[in-house]
Specification:
alpha+beta, Beta-Lactamase, 4 domains, 9-stranded mixed sheet, 6-stranded antiparallel sheet, 24 helices, 24 strands, 46% helix, 19% strand
Length: 780
């Protein structure tokens, strides 16, 4: 034990607010407390407390009341105080304990361990933090809580424990300490009359938060005298703090990726085991089609991907297979214990990666394996079985973390399926939920499964649009012809090389066929020629080349070069088709991107069903009406809003695709078509096609029209209705077009559409007659 004055707050020149308070060191509150216990206690307790009181009385008789100048005279008495204030069996060398002036500013007596911790240079930072926290009213709040309790009988207000951390010099890892100040032996005396307090005004809300600012104004601390001493206990809480940090990571990452805080998580694990050289891998075991898999995207810090990249024979036999993932076992390498199955071949490759020690531990959540925890060291560093034992305390938390990661993976899979492969959208999800619930209620044990209810929406207004790539079939045929010509010409060059080595008639006959097909490509439709030319190139020519490929090395090299040029992804004989597909993909990507934006805007106005179809361009259907969103009152204004948006979007898409012409290897243009249906229709979900379609004889007429107008011509003309740079609007009843004419006028005024509206009649289609259209140009 040590008796020495130590001012914690003297680490900076500026004054701390505690120095301005009336603080007096005194043993009287403690002595009074002992006398009360002595009066209430047993004979044995009276003897113990009487002995201690006698020691304090003797010290005061010899040296006077305790003060800074006579602290050493109280050594013996204070030692007995220590023995009644701490558990009897606690070892002094492991105790961070001290007595201080009231409120904990100056230490005057304590354990050697406390003073050693206090005087370490690295610990000075800790108490500088302590001082900084005091500036942020931590100590101040504790003082006010004591005043309210002692002088106003207001129940104690919880103030968070002071927790501080610093880096340990030996381990270079953080340690955490909590500081508790026992204020039982402090007397608080007001210097004047106590002001009245309104307890209710101090409460800000229902969760009982105090308004500390009001207290500072009503009760300045300079109005009080603080007399007595405080007891300070510092406890290392590194393990508890680390577990709390990991628990917070698990809670905060229930809805986001582990990688965002992986570094902080592994730092906490290093602190827990006290070894900065240990590394960690966390890998959730994912489920795909009810089969367990490991995916590198979701594996954080794992060494398994590095092993797999080695592609060694051992790695091919790594046994990290479906069977292992279904029933994983502990894998150990050089950690001083032999348990589990250590027959995994890839362990032999760990040393090649510099790994010194390795363990792979299965993690379980709700009794089901949810992932793998890897612990390993490299560059000669090791760990032992005690390290593994320490990790048991957090393994349930890590298991939950990986469970959440696997759950998020499943949600992402479902989201992709909904977005890319099915027609199930948020606007109609509620109706499918109801149908599924009704279906589940109808299921009876030992009986055939019931028929699920039809999902239908009545009286919805349809909007149809199509953006088509102009002359896509012609461009596709043109690209195919060009590529066929390239391949035939390359084949002729190869045949000429073969003739230098082999003078046989079949080569001349093959060359003659090449010339024949080159001529035919300029004369006949490609549709009839394509299967014949493919048969010639892929069967006859292929067999001939394979025969001569083995005759000598020089011919083999020539033929190999030809075969490389026929590869679809890179070869010269697919150049024009690749250019066309790339151009079409560029256009479709731009169209889809803009339609997604359109959909987002429409949904913000009123929920509706928006569905796209991939053709050589993009077609889409929009359905809007009360039955899609029963809880939201529908008004025709929402329909008009969507119609205006649709027309504006078509103009924007025409401008976007036109602006892409210089970026495309094969320049392509688009046409824009809208079909106007003025009346509402009924739609229902087709389970077999996983999409909505119209129902009822009248409604089917709408479906027939929109499917037949994409290539319609003007009446008594060979001119197609749809033209690049224009928007065509097809309608059946003249009243349907009046609304759109207003929108056209509005967009012309906005300099979006040209002043060139054409009124057109259309040719009769099978089962459909009397269709009309207007056509308007887009201002580029």
């Amino acid at each position: 034990m040590r008796t020495e004055l130590f001012d914690i707050l003297d680490y900076k020149e500026e004054e701390h607010f505690i120095h301005s308070l009336d603080i007096q060191l005194s043993l009287d509150p403690f002595i009074g407390h002992l006398k009360r216990l002595m009066d209430e206690g047993s004979k044995e307790r009276q003897e113990i407390f009487g002995f201690i009181l006698e020691k304090f009385a003797q010290a005061e008789k010899l040296h006077g009341p305790i003060a800074e100048t006579n602290l050493s005279g109280y050594d013996g008495a204070l030692f007995y105080a220590y023995n009644v204030l701490v558990p009897a069996l606690q070892e002094e060398k492991n105790s961070y304990w001290a007595l201080s002036y009231p409120l904990g500013a100056k230490i005057f007596y304590g354990t050697d361990s406390f003073y050693k911790l206090l005087t370490q240079q690295i610990c000075n930072e800790t108490f500088n933090q302590y001082k900084a926290t005091a500036k942020h009213q931590h100590i101040e709040r504790e003082i006010y809580a004591l005043i309210l309790e002692r002088l106003y009988q207001i129940p104690a207000i919880d103030v968070e424990d002071m927790v501080y951390s610093f880096e340990n010099e030996q381990t270079e890892l953080r340690q955490y300490f909590s500081i508790k100040i026992d204020k039982r032996f402090i007397e608080i005396t007001p210097k004047g009359e106590l002001p009245d307090l309104d307890y209710k005004k101090l409460r800000q809300n229902s969760i009982q938060q105090f308004d500390w600012k009001i207290l500072r104004e009503l009760l300045p601390l300079t109005l009080f005298t603080f007399r007595g001493f405080s007891v300070i206990n510092i406890n290392e809480i590194t393990e508890e703090k680390v577990i709390q940090n990991i628990r917070e990571v698990v809670s905060s990452h229930a809805s986001q990726d582990v990688q965002t805080d992986y570094t902080g998580l592994t730092d906490s694990l290093k602190v827990l085991i006290g070894n900065q050289h240990v590394k960690f891998g966390l890998s959730p075991i994912l489920q795909l089609n009810n089969k367990p898999i490991l995916d590198q995207v979701y594996m954080h810090g794992s060494i398994l991907p590095k092993l797999l990249k080695k592609k060694t024979r051992n790695c091919e036999q790594a046994n990290i297979s479906e069977a292992y993932l279904l029933n994983p076992q502990i894998i150990l390498y050089n950690v001083g214990i032999e348990i589990g199955n250590n027959s995994f071949k890839f362990l032999d490759d760990l040393s090649d990666l510099g790994v010194t020690s390795y363990v792979c531990i299965p993690l379980y959540y709700n009794n089901k394996v949810t992932g793998l925890l890897e612990v390993y060291t490299d560059n000669g560093h090791t760990f032992d079985k005690f390290t593994i034992a320490k990790l048991r305390k957090v393994s349930p938390l890590l298991a939950q973390l990986l469970y959440d990661e696997a759950h998020r993976f499943n949600e992402q899979i479902q989201a992709v399926i909904k977005e890319k492969f099915t027609s199930l959208q948020p606007s109609v999800q509620w109706r499918f939920n109801e149908a599924a619930y009704e279906y589940l209620k109808k299921i009876k044990p030992d009986k055939p499964k019931p028929v699920i209810d039809n999902v239908a929406f009545k009286h919805v207004y349809p909007l149809y649009g199509a953006i088509d790539i102009r002359n896509s079939t012609i461009e596709r045929n043109r690209a195919l012809i060009a590529d066929f010509k390239t391949q035939l010409q390359l084949l002729q060059k190869v045949l000429q090389q073969i003739k230098k080595f082999h003078h046989i008639a079949i080569i001349d006959e093959m060359d003659f066929n090449c010339n024949k097909w080159l001529t035919q490509l300029d004369l006949q439709p490609i549709d009839s020629l394509q299967p014949k030319i493919r048969d010639f190139l892929e069967k006859e020519a292929f067999m001939l080349l394979q025969h001569f490929k083995g005759s000598n090395a020089q011919l083999a090299e020539i033929i190999n070069q030809y075969e490389e040029e026929t590869l679809p992804d890179t070869g010269l004989t697919h150049k024009h088709r690749r250019a066309l597909e790339s151009s079409m993909a560029t256009i479709n990507s731009a169209i889809n991107g803009y339609l997604e934006l359109l959909n987002e805007e429409i949904q913000q106005s009123y929920p509706c069903y928006f569905e796209k179809f991939r053709t050589d361009g993009v077609e889409y259907d929009i359905y809007i009406g009360q039955s899609i969103a029963p809880e939201i009152p529908f008004n025709l204004l929402y329909l008009k809003n969507v119609r205006l948006w649709q027309l504006s979007a078509m103009a924007a898409i025409a401008k976007i695709t036109h602006s892409l012409l210089n970026q495309m290897e094969t320049p392509l243009e688009t046409t824009q078509l809208i079909f106007i249906n003025g009346n509402d229709i009924d739609i229902s979900f087709r389970v077999d096609e996983r999409r909505f379609d119209v129902e009822g004889s009248y409604n089917i007429r709408y479906h027939v029209i929109k499917k037949r107008i994409d290539k319609v011509h003007l009446k008594d003309s060979y001119e197609r209705l749809t033209q690049p740079g224009k928007i065509a609007l097809v309608y059946y009843d003249s009243k349907d077009i009046r609304e759109y004419r207003n929108y056209i006028t509005y967009l012309q005024d906005k300099d979006i559409l040209l002043d060139d509206v054409e009124e057109l009649e259309l040719e009769e289609l099978q089962g459909v007659s009397g269709l009309k259209a207007i056509r308007v140009g887009v201002k580029y």
